[in-house]
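Homework help board

Subject: predicted structure for assignment chain

Our instructor gave us this sequence and asked us to write out the predicted structure in token form, then describe one feature. I got the tokens but I'm not sure how to describe them. Can anyone check?
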Amino acid sequence: MLPERPRLGQRFCFLIKEVKEEAEKNSPQIILTRFDDLFIRKLLEQEVPQVKKDLVAIRDILRLPGLISKVVVEKGKEAIKKGLELDPTGACIGRRAERIEEISRLALPERVHIVTWSEDKTKLLDKLLSPIKLIRINQQGDN
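My token output:
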């Protein structure tokens, strides 16, 4: 979903989903997408050096393409191996939110939110639902 009216000279980012060889036309057909989760993952790899260096790992991406993405991150293997104190969410957001603003700009009109992974499912759900405030979780018993 692109902004309503693209302007002349305006740039958009896409993910190359597939390249098909068209023998009869002697030219490839290139399939582009912005709706695949890999699109958001590649934007993060491009804009956040810590993701590319495996200091920050993307645990999961939850999306409503064109509206909102929630990216769940945690400390990467390299950060754990080196014993680095690293805030994965802060690394993705950047100083003065520069990185996340650029990622959101490239994914326009989609908003991209970063959430730190937690083993505590209630804490994780609370972060994922933000800004909605979680009041209570009704859990079904094992029957």
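Reply (TA_rk): Your tokens look well-formed. For the description, you could write something like this. The chain has a mean pLDDT of 88. That's the kind of observation they're looking for.
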